[in-house]
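User: My advisor, Dr. K., asked me to get a structural model of this assembly before our group meeting. I'm new to this, so sorry if the format is off. These are the inputs:
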Amino acid sequence: MSTNTKLSIKSTSHADEKKTVTDNINYVNPNISNATALELAQRLSALTMNSYKSTEKIETTELDSIIPKAQRTVSQVVLRKAINQTPTITLTLENNKYICTISKAEYTSNAAFALSITTTGNLNPITLPKFELENATYADYCIASNLNVQYKMNFIEDADFITGTVKFPEDSTYQELTINLEITLTE
Amino acid sequence: MADTITNSKSLKLEYDFVDGDTRVNNIKDPNDSITSAQIEELNTFIRANNALVGDKYQATFARIRKATIIDKTTTNFDLN
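Assistant: The format is fine. Below is the predicted structure of the whole assembly, which you can bring to the meeting.
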C-alpha cells in the first residue's frame, strides 16, 4: 500500500488569461497544516510566469490485492470524516472486506469524494462493482478507461461518515483490483 | 498543411530524501529570471517545515539536489 499527497495548484496562464494551468506537486507531507501547504503552493507559483489562483490538497491511498473469486462478493467501505484536523486515509483489507477510513480531515459537509477501481482486466459495465451507500449521494460511475472506473459521491449535509458496501458480481473476472480513494479538500 | 512547432518550458526540481531515493516535481512556465538564491530559499522552507516526504516510507526530505529549466521545442511534421 502506498499513500501520496499532492497539491494541485491552479494558475491563470500568462499567455492566455482564459486558460487555467494546473501544476501537480507530489510528495507533500500529509501532516503539514493547510497554511504551510498554501505557502508552499504560493512559493512554487511565484517561480512561474502564471498568476496564482487556488490550491487543492489531494490524498491518494492505493491498496493492491488479489481477490479470489469466492471472496469477491461483498466488501465494505467506510468513509468517516472529522472536522478541523489534518486528513489521513487508511485503506485495509480485513476478512474479505475493504475498510476505508478518512479521519482527521478539514472539509465541508458536502465535500466530494472520488473512489476509483483499477483492474488488470478489461472492465465490463455489466459486472462492475456496485456501491450501496448510506449518508451520501452517489452519482453514476464513469469509466475513465477500459481499466479504470471512477465513482463519485458526496456527503449528505450534516452526515459525519459514509458507510457503504461494495459488491463484486459473481461472474466478474477481475483477478487483481486496486482501489484508490481520493479526497479533494476545498476551503 | 505545414509542420507545426510548439514550445514549452518547465522547471524540474529534483529532491533527495534520506531513504536515498530521488524524486521529481515539474512546474510549468517558469520565470526566466529564477535565481539560485530563490531555489535555496525554497529548499530552506521545505526543510524547515518538513513540507515534502517520501511516498513509500515517509522518508524525510534532505534537499533540492538540482533545479533545471527545460526549454522544449516540439515539431510535428506534416506527413500528408
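One thing worth pointing out at the meeting: Helices of chain A lie at 34-45.

User: Perfect, thanks a lot.
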